[in-house]
Design a protein that fits this description.
The protein has 12 helices and 9 strands. Helix content is 37%, strand content 17%.
């Protein structure tokens, strides 16, 4: 069951832990999770055994996310978010950025007045007024670790296996044999061969080094490394995580809070637009397991992304349905 606004947009009712069970492994390109913060906003914001619950939905999101997919989580409590970040990293995706969402500060993105304008300061206050929320952005850089290999494999394995296989076919039974040839033919030490054929600190050879390997392997008239370098480079870029660099932008984002829409904690569209545009491409699939009022779905509709949203509260499910349909 669920709302289908078109073939690309799907909103599903229910508990995300149950609904995600029907989503295939490695089928979405990005997860944006804005879970209950467990601060008592309403009944839905009071979660027993909160950290254990978070561990379960993080594991499910990690399962359905592609190896090179982006994983975003928002939270208002830095110490809690740090623990959630560790949980995500356990599934093989390292922390790329910690983002501070400055909701009320002054700046080019803040045409409105600050939240504290007209705010009455009382003498009993003994801490600063919190004016920010926080986001973590995790993605797999491709580093090999035993945990990463155990859980979901090395993402560059197809390319590494091709290079190592061609080395073996050409009769170079070890990386040291390639290193020795490098030193003899080029007169320099420090060959990168260990990084071309092994998982530890793997690197794709440069175009120049790839041509050198071709000459080395085919010196006796063989037919090795037949793939063109441009083809290898395209595959390498496809395997890497997506990051569409927006240019001059820091990890402190000054974006005004969302306008009131009937949901107690809506995220502003500009926040989601920035995330979606930077870490996915058109036609990619985005999962929001806590869809709320439907901001993520709205942005996906406007930017030509596929969307899967899950919302358990009937009131907010209906709200998100109408919003996505309008988008």
């Amino acid at each position: 069951m669920g709302l289908f606004t078109n073939s690309n947009m799907r909103l599903l009712p229910g508990d995300c832990l149950k609904v995600m069970g029907g989503i295939p492994d490695g089928s979405v390109d990005m997860v944006f999770a804005d879970p209950p913060y467990n601060i008592g906003k309403a009944a839905w914001d009071k979660v027993p055994d909160y950290m254990a619950w978070c561990s379960r939905w993080i594991a499910e999101c990690s399962r359905v996310l592609k190896p090179n997919g982006a994983f975003w989580i928002s939270h208002s409590k830095p110490l809690v978010l740090a623990k959630l970040s560790e949980m995500v990293a356990e599934h093989g995706r390292g922390l790329r950025n910690w983002v501070t969402w400055d909701k009320y500060g002054e700046g080019v993105d803040h045409p409105q007045k600050g939240f504290l304008d007209g705010f009455t300061v009382t003498g009993t206050v003994r801490s600063w007024q919190p004016m920010a929320e926080y986001l973590i952005y995790h993605a797999d850089e491709g580093e090999w670790t035993s945990q990463c290999d155990k859980d979901r494999g090395f993402i560059f394995e197809p390319l590494r296996a091709y290079l190592a296989g061609e080395r073996d076919r050409a009769g170079f039974v070890s990386t040291a044999a390639v290193d020795a040839k490098w030193q003899a033919m080029r007169g320099t030490k420090g060959c990168m061969a260990g990084h071309w054929f092994g998982r530890s600190q793997w690197e794709l050879p440069t175009a120049d080094n790839y041509e050198w390997l071709r000459r080395l392997f085919n010196a006796k008239g063989g037919d090795y490394l037949r793939r063109e370098y441009e083809d290898l480079r395209r595959e390498y870029e496809d395997l890497r995580y997506t990051f569409n660099n927006p240019g001059k932008m820091s990890s402190v984002w000054q974006i005004p809070p969302a306008k009131s829409n009937g949901h107690p904690t809506p995220k502003p569209p500009e926040l989601l637009r920035r995330i979606v545009m930077a870490t996915t491409n058109e036609e990619d699939a985005v999962l929001d397991p806590f869809a709320g009022s439907g901001t993520t779905g709205e942005i996906c509709s406007q930017t030509n992304r596929h969307f899967i949203g899950i919302e358990k509260d009937p009131k907010y499910f209906e709200m998100a349905s109408k919003r996505i349909q309008a988008a």
